[in-house]
Structures are given as structure tokens and as C-alpha cells.
Amino acid sequence: MRVDKLELNDYRNIKKATLFPHPKVNIIYGKNAQGKTNLLESIWLCSGNKSFRGAKESQIVQFEKPAFQILLHFSDKERRQCIRYLAGDKRKIFLNEVPLKTISELAGEFYCVVFNPDDLDIVKGGPSYRRQFLDTAISQIKPIYGKYLSQYENVLEQRNVLLKEIRKQNYSEDMLDIWDEQLAKLGTILSIFRKDYLEKLKIVGQKIYSGFSGGKEKIEMEYQSTIYPNSTELKIYSDKLISEYRKILLEFREEDIRIRSTTKGIHRDDFEIEIDGLSAKQFGSQGQQRSCAITLKLSEAALLKNITGENPVILLDDVMSELDCQRQHYILNKVKDFQVFITCCDLSNTLQLEEGKIFFVENGSFAENNNGL
Question: Which end of the chain is more exposed for a tag (fewer CB within 10 A), N or C?
Fold first, then answer.
């Protein structure tokens, strides 16, 4: 899968731009606040996801303009396609000029993986960032996962409401049984999905990180469930696993009532990232932490390819800083079979690029600058 042509109109600070990207590596360089990340964001929106910057569409439209437009021409294994994305007061999305009802209908049409500096929190931040990474990655491969997760969150919210009211209204604790049963069923299947995905991600990630570090370091990942011990085999959905989940909820019921919140479950799970046996969060250098986060994203792309048969487009925003020459060379030249877009401020970080295109951006205007390639 690759972007053949990208046209933008009235998109943030980009009044009008047309790019014909290289099928391999594309470097987007320029000073800060010139439009580099805006370009990546526009491509990402065409994957059916919301802005990775958390922006609403009304915030993306250029000042005093009614709407923005993205025109993305792309190729998959079978044919060339086109996404037309217009948004202002109203959103209109077309796939090959056929109107779509919702943005989610783009999911599975154009695959994309994005890294931005906030993704360092997957390694450096709290468990919620790592859970969100897993949830987003798995949902792109298995849309049913997102439906189960939404159901789980709704049930969890109802259980927490009841926990807040039990003592206040003198309700019977048995009223929690119905919510525990639903949480156990949904939490079990979600746990299986997550554990399976992380195991596959680890295998791919170890190869990528080894290339990143020149074979000098090894990365490990371990899912940490608040319900199941590490020794539990989470592979087949069964009454036994559901029963174990429900048992833990019952065991901590009094604690949940006391603090008026559900303390155990997949919403409290985490996964550990280690480099050579040490926590990357606690002991990793900034370069190692950045390498781990990028490895997770590249591994996500590789799994997407393995499962769907399509190579996702990879968007890497400000990845070159804090990486040594070995790791920069890997990103520029060793990410095989994928079209990659890389933003940076300092072109000297890309001197090792062997094949691709370089675009210079200033005040929302883009120009090819391929001297030396």
C-alpha cells in the first residue's frame, strides 16, 4: 500500500499543496510550525482514525475558510483508489467517489501506522498509554475487538455507578453479580486478544530492535494482567477463564465498594517493556526509550502486513532526534517493503538516506529538494 498523490486545500497552515511521494522513503524537513506534522496528520485521517493530535475537524480548517479538503490517491495490492475527505461544518467522505456514511467505513481501506513524540509515553508513561496502544493496534486488525471493548467500558461504567450507590442507598451487594458476569465474559475475551497480540508483537519486535541496536541489545515484553497470573494460558475462551475472572472481582468486591471503583480488570492491566532484563521505563536512556517506542510502531506495521496482506503506510513524526547513527540508518534504509514518511528539522540527520525523496516545507508550502540522491 502506498500514497501515489496527495492534494491538500485549506488544511491548517497549508493553503494548497500537491505531492507525489516516493514509494519508499519520504523526508519532510523544515523548521518548527511550518506544516510537517500537518501533512502526516492529513494522511492519518484517511485511515479512518481521529487526529493523533486530538484536534477536532473544526480546528483543522484554515482560518476563515469554510472547509478543508484532502485528496489521497493510493494503491493497494489490487488497484489504485482515491479518498476525498472534506470537513467543515459538515463532513463528507468519498471512496472512489462513492459517499461513505461514517469515517469508520475507511477502516480497512487504507492502512496506516503513526508515531509522534507523544508516543514516547507508551514507554515512559503510565499503564493507560500502553493499554491504549494495544487497543488501537488490535482494533485496526480485528474490528470486533473495538466492539467488545466498547461494551466492556459501558458495563464497567454501570458497575462503578452502582459501587458509588451501594452504601449510600443501602443496596444489596448481590446487585453487582449481573455486572460481574458481563465484565468477566468481556474481560476474558479481551485479555485473550491482548495477550495473543503482544506475544506476536514481541517476536517481530525482537527482530526489529536487534536491527536497531546492531544486535547489541534485546527487548522483551510481558503482559501484566490484574486477573490472571503470568502462568495462566490465555489462548482459548472458556468457562474456566471466565470463572477465574469473576472470582477475582468477587474477592475484591469489598475493596471496590470502599473506594467506589472497580480495582481489577483489563482496564487496570499493563505490559512491561525491558531492555536486557531491565525496565525500559525506569532504566532506559532517552535514546533507548525512543527506540522502544519506534520499535512498537514498526512491529505494529509488520503485524498489519502479516495479517491483512497489505503493507501499511508508516508515518514517523520527529523520530531522528536522540538516535545514534546506527539507529538513524536503520530507519532510513532498513524498513523494507513499506512506504515511509519521516519529518525532521535537521536535514543532517538524513544524510545516510540511500533511496527516496526529500521535501522542504516552509509556511505550508512544499518543494522537492533531492540534491545528492
Answer: C
**191, 185 Cβ separation under 8 angstroms:** no
Q: Give the DSSP letter of residue 66.
A: S
Q: How far is CA 23 from CA 1, 2, 100, 298, 337, in A?
A: 9, 6, 27, 17, 9
Question: Which cell is 32 given?
Answer: 518548527
Tens digits of residue pLDDT in 284-338? 988 899 899 999 999 999 999 998 888 999 999 988 877 888 888 888 988 878 9
Burial class (CB in 10 A: 0-12, 13-18, 19+), 365: middle
**Grid cell locating 221:** 515484553
Q: 257: which residues sit within 8 A by CB, 6+ positions away? A: 163, 166, 167, 173
At position 126, the amino acid (one-letter code) is G
List all residues 6 or more positions away from 229 whose beta carbon is below 8 Å from its beta carbon.
Answer: none
Contacts with 256 (C-beta within 8 Å, 6 or more apart), sequence order: 163, 249, 262, 263
DSSP of 176-245, one letter per residue? GHHHHHHHHHHHHHHHHHHHHHHHHHHHHHHHHHHHHTTTS--EEEEEE-SSS-TTS---S--HHHHHHH
Percent of the chain with pLDDT over 70: 99
Question: Can you give the pTM of this predicted structure?
Answer: 0.88
